[in-house]
Task: inverse folding
């Protein structure tokens, strides 16, 4: 919740730090991966963000929002998808 609030305030670096502080707890949580991907993308780290967005999608986390974020990241990297 804290990391989400930071991201919503355009403080993605701080949000990312908060998320990474609970990495062990979030490792199998799709929503955690989604939030890390979001933070990374909005700190101009799209390639890293794609790894987390893909994992979030695999885990079924955050439904259509995860899919949308993944598409945005792929598009920013010039990756075309068939999904």
Result:
């Amino acid at each position: 919740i804290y990391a989400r609030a930071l991201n919503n305030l355009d403080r993605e670096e701080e949000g990312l730090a908060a998320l990474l502080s609970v990495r062990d707890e979030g490792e199998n949580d799709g929503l955690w991966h989604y939030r890390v991907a979001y933070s990374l993308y909005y700190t101009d780290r799209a390639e890293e963000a794609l790894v987390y967005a893909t994992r979030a999608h695999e885990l079924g986390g955050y439904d259509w929002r995860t899919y949308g974020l993944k598409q945005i990241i792929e598009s920013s990297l010039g990756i075309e998808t068939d999904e």
The chain has six helices and no strands. Helices lie at 2-8, 12-20, 23-26, 30-41, 46-59, 63-76. The mean pLDDT is 93.
